[in-house]
Specification:
- With about 140 residues, the chain is mostly helical.
- Helix content is about 60%, strand content about 5%.
- The chain is built from two helices and two strands.
- The protein has a two-stranded antiparallel ribbon.
- Strand 1 and strand 2 (about 60) form a beta hairpin.
- The longest helix has about 80 residues, at about 65-140.
- The chain starts with about 20 loop residues before the first helix and ends with a helix.
């Protein structure tokens, strides 16, 4: 099953290395990306500096608590916005499909009721008409 990547799914493009892996940073920056799965994310407490993957050097000091909160809030908002957009689409599609099924069943039931009522009405009408004609023929003799 080869599905193209859905553009609405967010992808992590920035890599943040822990401070204690300074030697590994230079080695990682020098080697091309491999198809191996990424290592687990370090705790926010262990991350002390963001590094530039091109040269492996620290570019910014450790983010402050306020910066972490701002980043966390913006990330939450972004993920929530993307999830809500996708949920809206899926929900609308499922409601439309289920509503179509329910409406089709209701229409079929209504059509059957109308058909049965029309049949009864026609039977009564024909019975009355035949009875009236028989009465006319008997009275005219």
């Amino acid at each position: 099953m080869n599905n193209p990547i859905d553009a609405s799914i967010p992808v992590l493009t920035e890599i943040i290395y822990p401070a204690n892996a300074a030697g590994a940073e230079e080695e990682t920056a020098a080697t091309p990306a491999s198809p191996l799965p990424p290592s687990p994310m370090p705790d926010a407490v262990t991350v002390s500096a963001a590094t530039d993957p091109m040269n492996g050097s620290a570019t910014n000091p450790a983010p402050s608590e306020e910066q972490w909160q701002t980043l966390e809030q913006s990330l939450k908002e972004s993920v929530l916005k993307n999830v809500l957009a996708r949920v809206d689409f899926v929900l609308e599609h499922r409601v439309r499909d289920n509503l179509a099924d329910v409406l089709q069943t209701a229409v079929e039931g209504l059509a059957n009721e109308i058909r049965a009522g029309l049949k009864n009405s026609l039977e009564e009408l024909v019975t009355r008409a035949v009875t009236q004609e028989i009465t006319k023929v008997k009275n005219s003799k």
